[in-house]
Amino acid sequence: QARKIQVLLPHVMEVLHDGNRAIKMKALVVFRNVMRHLKRKEASPIAVQLVEELLPLLDDESSQMRELSISLFRDVVATVVGKDKRRMKKKVRRGLLPLFFNMHDETDSVAK
């Protein structure tokens, strides 16, 4: 089923630009679940695209959103294989500063 849903992921990714936090969080859960069921080779190019969409969410005012986006960020970075690693490395560098600041977050689960 994850492979069937894979076709919808570009549309789900567009939801991350929506202003509604609840919908964004549901979209992140969809990505987390689908990415876990794809083979790494299938998930790798999606991960490279997704990590860029996650960067603004790392600084969201909602601790739940930060926690969910950081968790997914970690998972998608670990998913990348082959030639996608170089592309991912450039994008991850842009997320290091927000991640560093989140280490000192008031919410323990975000700081972890």
Automatic annotation (TrEMBL):
Give a Gene Ontology cellular component term annotated to this protein: cytoplasm
Species this chain originates from: Spheniscus mendiculus
Q: What is this protein called?
A: Maestro/Maestro-like HEAT-repeats domain-containing protein
Q: Matching InterPro entries, A to Z?
A: ARM-like, ARM-type_fold, HEAT_Maestro, Maestro_heat-like_prot
Taxonomic lineage: Eukaryota, Metazoa, Chordata, Craniata, Vertebrata
Question: Mind telling me which SUPFAM superfamilies this protein's record contains?
Answer: ARM repeat
Residues of the Maestro/Maestro-like HEAT-repeats domain: 3-112
- Pfam families from the entry? HEAT_MROH2B_C
Superkingdom, taxonomy of origin:
Eukaryota
Q: Which PANTHER family match?
A: MAESTRO HEAT-LIKE REPEAT FAMILY MEMBER 3, MAESTRO-RELATED HEAT DOMAIN-CONTAINING
